[in-house]
Design a protein that fits this description.
homooctamer; 8 helices; binds adenosine monophosphate; binds magnesium ion
């Protein structure tokens, strides 16, 4: 167990009954109780057993704890900027966003800033400047992190998605793109792994908080 | 034989003697006599046999006919804009440029506009606007054509290069990137195929010239 | 947005309701309103909401604007010749053809001219000669563009399809064939990307028209 | 040991001394004594030990028995037609041709009939018609066997070569092309395996001779 | 059209109505009317339209002409021996066998002689000796053709199948095995391509018949 | 240009003269002047031109500025722990370490803690605990980051190396291992990209410093 | 047939009727009658025909003979330790365990000891020490066998599973990981091949028993 | 450290000086001191420093301890049978054999029993019967372990080699063949990993010895 990041439930391959049971078993034991990759009908079956479960439809996440309201100041300072290239990348981008929010981090979303329409990205540079760490989600050719890497001055977590067809080979194309990015300072996670990106971004903010605490002790 | 594009000599696997011999055999028969992928020492050995051969060092091209001087108006109207992402992509980009010039097309070069420093590209949008067709050369993640595809309003020929290491897998990564580009209107050629890109771009300008001739006949 | 080519709706992953809604939102704003990769049942559900939608069954395209009637002279001069190798490649070839027609370009179809029966192609060389740009669609071994590249004197857009089985690896085989074509002057698009091929071919014709306009201004 | 096809020596990884020694050991024991993939300098070293060795330079074959003179009627009736697409495919095509001749089969060569210049092939259809079995050698996109498969009425052995660069991936592209050929009746051998193609073609002619002998016995 | 091998209908992607219609259109025009890759329910729907259609269940072939009865001497002399490695390879092996029989060739079947139980193969060597050409079908590791290649003295057509799981990668493993066979004289066809193997084997027997006819004319 | 990380020179494909020239041009303009992937003989030739260049042999880095002495407190607080699995991974691990030190970050090295001898890692857990961010370098199977991910509570940058043979496929194996790590919170960079890992880790520490500065302003 | 390991029935592609029939045919002929990869509904249909069939649900195995009761001393001495990394790997691990038990071997299970929580493995080292041979089952990054290889002093059979997503490429990632393990003494079987691992482990224990018998005869 | 198998030195990437130094450091500390993948000239340089080093030329192994003389009864009972398919596989097979002998195990060699000449294998079945564990080494199509798996009743360690060309893809083909073997009870190691195979086979014999010791204690 890595401190501060309670285990989450991986939905695929589990019955709604099993997920409900694990959720109940975790209740009162951890601060965040969530399951990922939950289709709407699975959510329906879980809710029949666990009435207070909440569903984040786009993110395909079920959770017992709702995200902090906008005016609820997060405990760990800093903002995770999350960018996505296309509409079809939203489920992965929202998996990152909701995970981060459920873990208590501040999130700033910027959707639909794919490189084929670069001006939308350039018109929103304040999001890149305000963020302390960026998650960049893109499928098809996956070029967005490279461009962002040249514009932003913070760590970047790149998430390739399986969005695309033909020579995207289920996400292989954007994965290779991101690994070969000529912009340094980019860490890549597995295809569609919005959850893992949120944990890595969260770790980066926690590192900052811990360093500050250390320096104050001196 | 495709009209207007005389055969060129593919250098690899041929001795300097063989290349020299083919060049002499072509002399007086075609307007352009050139050989590609010629290393400097091979050039030296060819020149010993064919004294009037010219060497385009970066392009690694040997030719009997020098490119038109800047003030020499090309016969086929239109401009081929050629962009390259990084310094290491120059040999491929120059192979495109010199081929196009030797074939009599107007060329506008724009080097080192890789996406990790997007402002250099944005500061040179006039090159994109002035071109009638664009050749975009990029290695590593090969993201440049996608960005250009969103900025330019003309046909784009994308050339992946084998520049890179590790997960670029000798040009596979930028090849996949370009094929998956979310910007439509991009045609991709083989890895490092600067020559083929020039022929395709030249065909596009010739099509325009032929269409104009047709319409004037009516 | 690239001038002259209004955005089209990518069908997969969207509900009929979402597609219908986007179409209505685009009405009166763009000249071409179309959605690609639409299965018959999805079309049925869209039509229930948008009664004046038209369905091009083989092309799997829904559109609000029908293609120009045969005697309706296109605004942009020139003809896009579209060739397909086998019957199973028709959906992709028709995606190209209908897209091009909806965008207002003149199209000449030539189906079933695969290289295993080369005489059918040779008996129709007038189509190759009359075209100003060619789209060549082929699956399985994808050899057709190479042969056409040696016969035609115009730019060629090659479209590999996922038609085939076993060692075609979902279109990888014809994709590699086309990229390695020994005939220069061929630009390749993604597997099954009939739409992108039409946009590239259209760009080529528009370039010609713009060049003519430029020369007339002088 | 398969009757009628004496073992041949695979050159790579063996010293000239080892090859010479194996050749001498085979002398007087088999009718054909040959070694494949022999570079010129290796041949020189072998000849210093085995003076009567003959070198087929393009085929890169060393043998103790020269091929039958043109007017020497082969013992096994029938002709192996051998076609090659490009100049760079010649070493593989000649490996097939010399192997077949050394084994006593009649060979008809047809070089440089790649599909990008289809008329050269069409002008030589008599070679296809006269052959009883065809070996078709091609690199790059490897499209030649598909076209030949539609023109010839005899068994076809297809040999992909490693000629090419970039997305040919050392012969993977023509290999896949040939395996996916939409023309049936084509058997494919390993990349650059001119030797194996000759053995398969020879087996086909021997089958014919054996069937004739059987029918005469009845 | 290659003489002697009438076109067959490729079932996948066609409706039963389309298949029935093509069959009726071919009736009275060609001697063999067959469709491959037909599932039982598709057969049922075809039979409702074409009552005299016959179904070869394991081969998944529908045909209007039944195979020659055992005592019906085939017109083309010679025997095609067909071997299969495992039970799961039977559909592909039967596709070869029924195709060959429908085309009028003599067939000898030998099932379940995979290399993991080599003695069953060794106990049936007479099948290898009696055959004039062999088709060898194997999935998983696809080792059978290599072993047969060392035992039989006739041309071998190797058919990899998609039988297997995990690292068989849908037939890639046996395909590579067969291409790398250390036994020469083996031609490989596409994964699961039982039909193509039958055509190639048939071509080999027809070559023999044609050579005999030629020699008798002299 | 990303603030705080001056450009470095990528050695491969550049002559010593070119590298020396770029270094001199950068002198007095940036705080860190370094070139990566420099072989010993290239270093020798550079030093002949730039006498005050320093060579980090294992890291294969040339630089004009030596790393901070051990007692020189770094300006950006925090420690980058760098772990390597095997001896052959050292050049990549040292590329990370020297880059980080040249950029002014505090580095703690832990070499030879591969998972096949897990106790050496477990006996050095203090390095994991003391680090604010970890770089984990491993080739062959690349399992080290997964294990470290379960032990450390900080962001992890994983670097696959091309160390290995056979089925490591030049680093593909450890790359896939790291991307699939069941431990979340790991960002992966390109194969052998020790430099990029250092930049990402440095960005993480700078983020912490900037966040602290922000909070102090409030 | 390999002595001591009766054939088992591979379920996929067989109807329940076929499986039931084979089981009945084997009854009274072999000591172990089992079928693998049986889904629950297939089991139901088999039981309707063969009432005394037993179903091991997680292992997806149907068998006529139940495993030895805990106090039933196995005939072949020695213990097969079976480890699995994650919950989703259980079906494969149980396939190994039930197969081994049905064949009469002693089995010790240790589930959920994935490397991301290394302490659970370290707290159960007695399982590794007590085993005479180990089967280690892991998906995703497949790192567990490498770690176990450094801790255990006995032969290890590694089983990659298809558990994972994205860059696991259906088990390719853990397969490569295991083949590249820096710990020697590990033999790898096919992806998800729990059955094959049990046979190999059983062979190892039988070898031991046979060696003991041999030595006692002396 | 795994008991009984002292570390060996991996030669590639180390200078002769480094290897000599490590050997001297190990002297008097472990019973076996050996280095693998040593080319002849590297051996020469090592011997100049360590005069009592012995070189096993085919195995490319340097060692300080010679293998047991034939009449020296090994301490661990049992015999490792080692089979190789072709002559070119010998370096890998000898790496296995010499490693096993240096570790004190009894070895029985059987070279050149590739499946294309199955009778040589069948004439030597006593080697398979006498062995307690088998190492089977094969390149190209790698079919030998499958055949042996059906003939032998003991554990099999399969070693694919990089011997071959074209579609062998540096050993990928035999690797896949072996993983897909339809004979169960086969464990596969990395391409060319003769050393690892010897350690695994040795572990199997040691397990037998330990089990015997355990049973005698009871
Ligand atoms: N969406 C996700 N993407 C990647 N990993 C996940 C995701 N959701 C859960 N996990 C991982 O799966 C683990 C739980 O797996 P399980 O025990 O099967 O529910 C968690 O600890 C996470 O590390
Ligand atoms: N740099 C190049 N890249 C790709 N194709 C080329 C290049 N140079 C020449 N070619 C092609 O190679 C052909 C000549 O090949 P060859 O007859 O072997 O000299 C030309 O007609 C071109 O199509
Ligand atoms: N050029 C070639 N291509 C493929 N296989 C060959 C070739 N030359 C020889 N061989 C095969 O290699 C075997 C001899 O290998 P070796 O015993 O190593 O000399 C012959 O029996 C042939 O089957
Ligand atoms: N060792 C390295 N690994 C990866 N990227 C590097 C490395 N060294 C330099 N670079 C990148 O290469 C760029 C310089 O390339 P160049 O202009 O060709 O010298 C730098 O800005 C870095 O982003
Ligand atoms: Mg993108
Ligand atoms: Mg780029
Ligand atoms: Mg085709
Ligand atoms: Mg060709
Ligand atoms: Mg087999
Ligand atoms: Mg490791
Ligand atoms: Mg694991
Ligand atoms: Mg073999």
């Amino acid at each position: 167990l890595r401190t501060g990041f309670p285990e989450v439930i991986w939905g695929p391959g589990k019955t709604p009954q099993q997920i409900a049971q694990i959720m109940e078993a975790m209740r009162n034991r951890t601060s965040v109780i969530m399951a990922t990759r939950i289709e709407p009908d699975v959510y329906g079956a879980i809710r029949a057993i666990v009435p207070d479960v909440h569903y984040y439809a786009t993110a395909r996440i079920c959770a017992l704890k709702s995200p902090p309201s906008p005016d609820h100041k997060p405990q760990i300072p800093g903002t995770i900027g999350i960018l996505s290239a296309g509409t079809a990348d939203l489920p992965v981008a929202e998996e990152s966003a909701v995970t981060a929010e459920l873990y208590g981090f501040g999130v700033q979303r910027l959707w639909d800033v794919g490189v084929a329409g670069i001006h939308r990205l350039l018109n929103n540079l304040h999001v890149l400047n305000d963020a302390d760490v960026l998650i960049v989600v893109a499928g098809m050719e996956g070029a967005l992190p490279s461009v962002v890497g040249g514009l932003a001055d913070c760590p970047i977590v790149a998430v390739p998605t399986s969005v695309g067809y033909g020579a995207s080979f289920n996400g292989l194309a954007p994965l290779l793109t991101m690994l070969n990015s000529c912009a340094a300072g980019i860490g890549v996670v597995n295809i569609d792994n919005g959850f893992g990106a949120a944990v890595l971004a969260g770790q980066i903010l926690r590192t900052a908080a811990k360093l500050k605490a250390k320096s104050e002790k001196l």
